[in-house]
């Protein structure tokens, strides 16, 4: 009946406002949007879970469905590095309850017991302190940032046996079933020392992918950094809130710096020749909001749902690459783009590229999108 339909739409409206957290197979990331206009946000912890937050907020507390209260986000932020906070298993949902000022800015990560990389460490990054992380202590490290930005730079050490990858998700989600793809995956070890880039996300994971102990990477929460560009450099562009998983969830993170676009120009010359390798994944609704990439005047507009773009330019002696994108307010447009400019004298590409962002079950996703669009239009 129309009453049932109205009720359904009302519940859907409510759900679209409250249930917008970023969900993975074994974890959830809850941030600004989830306590916006609401004092409660639920999270899954059926098997028990470890909970993390870098946010100094005593007024957001965890509680179970019976109203039993646990610690606050500040209690999590204050934990000695290496110590973990574990909540007991529960057949019901847990809740974050905000008893302070409305619409707080925060980030919270709950990972369920038994998840892959459950024992991986989580580092809290604030603007007050940069960190040198070393591979010898952490093969995989998840980072959470109070500014919503995580800047990777100063890659030191020997990467000839294994190159590091960086993801915009927690360590539990870097392999199947979420099928999250990296935002940074070097195609040549020769570019790593010159490469630095921000991930505009409150959570990221670096996977060093192999043995070795002399690798060091500098991390900063500085929200104003841009990617390095040039010869033998990998330029990395990650749109604000990008998650990068092919699990049908198109949610974005909302605890972010003020980045609203990219306008970047890469130039390089080398008389012995250069190679330009472009690899991008994107979901951009409208042509007018396309991400544009142009190499020596050869321009490409990237837009559409779950698109991949790979292109290589070989043996050019002079390169000018322009990257432009401006975020459309309120859109769910998102992308990750990696551009390698490698001199012929540099180490040749050794690894193959992931192409996991292919469209699956397009029809059911299309149907879901239609329902969501209808609901949003009616809300
Ligand atoms: C990180 O390591 C570099 C190189 O050893 C050093 O110059 C820098 O001061 C270190 N920074 C921090 C925050 O430890």
Automatic annotation (TrEMBL):
| Signal peptide range | 1-20
Q: Which UniProt keywords apply?
A: Signal
Q: What is this protein called?
A: Uncharacterized protein
Organism, as annotated: Pristionchus mayeri
> Taxonomic classification, please?
Eukaryota, Metazoa, Ecdysozoa, Nematoda, Chromadorea
